[in-house]
Design brief:
CATH class of the largest domain: Mainly Beta
Helix content: 25-40%
Number of domains: 4
Largest sheet: 7 strands, mixed
CATH architecture of the largest domain: Sandwich
Radius of gyration: 38 Å
Shape: extended
Structural class: alpha+beta
Number of helices: 9
CATH topology of the largest domain: Immunoglobulin-like
Distance between the termini: 85 Å
């Protein structure tokens, strides 16, 4: 027993060493935006056993409750390696009553006698929604109507077009964003029916969107969840007013609907439907001022703020030794449009195309980075030379004036030296835009012997065969064009395509229901049967999802001269499937409902609705 206790103690000590072997992490976390009058939580998390938490002064934020402590630990074995984790969390409940920005100083905590400090937290308290009493009553009635019809108000979801500037100079970057605002609705996804304008008159540089994040924003007296769904940088290519057309988006919303025929379970389970909502981001006009007159020599369209550095390999050298000049232009602006400055090398220098290396990055403030140029030349004659200065002119968007950056000039003293082989090695070590290699001879020998001709042995074809070889592909192409054009026309008619495929889709879902019927998941089976019936009726009768209910279906079937017995059967099957989802019956009832649904769809097909 004594040995067993010692072994247990050693295990505990080893576990403690593993647990405390990692670095201590102590972090504070809270929402970046909250609404005045609504509580929120501030948490402090440490990955070690700790004590003596000292929270900062909450200032004008009201303290509601806390700290509540919770802890969790886990141990895992991966490839024979044991890993243990531990988390200790302290939670405070706070509330801001006054709109504004608040900064909470770091908290401190002690781990194994050593004090650790968390990060600070910045919180923006937004004003509450501004809704007078009369407006609130109207809003409630409007919400009730929306629940009955499945519609969504323009006040609850809309798009904005946001530009960083409306007055800029030519080639000055403008950040354009399309931002979604929504409140009281759930946005499931955006469809592919998105139409972004062409941005005629601009050079476009799209920004990587990444994962879309939502945040609160107070706009026009109301708090909305917002998400930026598209961003791009635009560079005006000419002066004057440049109009950007409206953008079109389509979102799928999940909306709670009150059905006209209700069951007793509607009070306990909400009935939801997906509603497709067309959204328009309004157009905007950008005014681009022309660049001032008096453009300096060397100006090639650069707009922004730049700096330039240069270096040369040496000024004292021998003939056939390479001279390298390196120039680096860095800054922010229309970096991709910057032209490479030219060096006017003295006569007697053999020159090569410059090697250009671009290192650009694009952000919300525009494009920034560096453009590095490496020039290579080889002097072929001794003497004293001057390499003229390299000038780079641009328009400074901050100072609103032209500026010229200068590198050089450079005075070179070239002495005579032998080195054809040395020169060849230097050139081969230079990696430029084109490969440089020396041929064994300058001029290839010209073959001047009398040419000899011989028959190739190829077969000749008749004129008719040649004409058919040209005509047949044209006939095939014309036939394919007619076929594909007909398919495109049919695919463009979404309603007709859904009508034609309604039975095929319903049969596929019935097969899925038949598979589920053999299992134990009754709810999934009844949901599959109900979805097969509803989707078939929606596609076959061309009824939008938001308007799907038994009364609308019965009315349309009646207009199509469907018998009253079949209409009654439609109502009965839909009601039975809906009720059975929440009060499943036995296996016999499942089989009976499946057969009735399959027979109903078959009868509707035969009635040629």
């Amino acid at each position: 027993m004594k040995t067993k206790h010692i072994f247990t103690l050693l295990l505990l000590v080893a576990a403690n060493m593993l647990l405390h072997g990692e670095d201590v992490s102590f972090r504070a976390q809270a929402p970046s935006q909250v609404i005045a009058g609504k509580p929120f939580q501030l948490t402090y998390t440490v990955n070690q056993r700790a004590r003596d938490l000292k929270a900062p002064d909450f200032g004008d934020l009201d303290y509601i409750a806390g700290p509540y402590t919770s802890q969790s630990s886990s141990t895992s074995f991966v490839n024979g390696k044991r890993t243990s984790t531990f988390t200790l969390t302290y939670t405070y409940t706070l509330m801001g009553n006054k709109a504004g920005k608040y900064t909470l100083q770091p908290a401190t905590i002690r781990v194994d006698g050593q004090e650790y400090t968390s990060n600070g937290v910045r919180i923006t308290v937004l004003p509450p929604d501004e809704e007078p009493a009369a407006a609130q009553g109207g809003s409630t009635q409007q919400q009730s109507r929306q629940q009955e019809t499945g519609s969504v108000s323009q006040d609850n979801i809309f798009m904005r077009t946001i530009v960083s500037k409306t007055h800029v100079h030519e080639q000055e970057a403008v950040l354009l964003s399309y931002k979604l605002y929504f409140a009281g609705v759930d946005v499931a996804q955006f469809t592919n029916n998105t139409k972004i304008p062409e941005f005629t008159g601009f050079l476009k540089q799209e920004l990587e969107q990444g994962e879309i994040q939502t945040e609160l924003e107070h706009y026009n007296g109301r708090n909305y969840q917002t998400a930026t769904v598209y961003r791009t940088l635009l560079y005006p290519q000419h002066s004057g007013e440049i109009k950007i057309d409206a953008a079109q988006f389509e979102a799928v919303l999940r909306v709670q609907v009150r059905q006209q025929v209700r069951s007793i379970f509607d009070d306990f389970f909400g009935s939801y439907t997906n509603v497709t909502k067309a959204l328009t981001a309004p157009g905007v006009t950008i005014y681009a001022e022309p660049l001032p007159k008096g453009k300096p020599a060397g100006f090639s369209g650069g707009v922004g703020r730049f700096s330039m550095t240069s270096e040369i390999t040496g000024t004292e050298m021998k003939t056939n030794e390479a001279v390298t000049v390196k120039i680096n232009i860095q800054g922010a602006g229309n970096m991709k449009l910057l032209k490479t400055p030219a060096i006017d090398w003295p006569e007697g220098f053999e020159t090569y195309d410059p090697k250009v290396t671009n290192n650009f990055k694009t952000g919300t403030t525009g494009m920034s980075g560096s453009k590095s140029i490496e020039y290579l030349a080889i002097p072929r004659a001794a003497g004293k030379y001057t390499v003229p200065a390299v000038k780079f002119a641009y328009f400074d968007t901050q100072d609103k004036e032209y500026k010229t950056l200068t590198a050089g000039p450079w005075d070179l003293n070239i002495e005579r030296g032998a080195g054809d082989k040395e020169q060849e090695a230097v050139v081969q070590n230079y990696v430029g835009k084109e490969e440089i290699r020396q041929l064994g001879t300058d001029i290839r020998y010209i073959h001047n012997a009398e040419p000899q001709y011989r028959k190739s042995g190829r077969k000749s074809y008749s004129r008719t065969t040649v004409v058919l070889c040209y005509l047949l592909p044209l006939l095939i192409a014309a036939a394919l064009f007619v076929i594909f054009r007909r398919q495109i026309r049919e695919n463009a008619d979404i309603t007709r395509r859904r009508y034609k495929k309604a039975n095929k889709v319903a049969q596929k879902r019935l097969r899925e229901a038949q598979r589920l019927m053999q299992g134990t998941d009754d709810a999934a089976f009844y949901e599959a049967v109900e979805r097969a019936a509803w989707s078939y009726l929606s596609d076959r009768l061309s009824i939008p999802t938001a308007q799907m209910n038994k009364d609308n279906i019965a009315s349309i079937l009646h207009d199509k001269k469907v018998s009253e017995e079949l209409i009654a059967e439609v109502r009965e099957v839909l009601s039975t499937a809906e009720f059975a989802r929440y009060a499943p019956a036995g296996d016999n009832a499942k089989e009976e409902l499946y057969n009735r649904t399959a027979e109903l769809i078959n009868n509707l097909e035969n009635s040629k609705i």
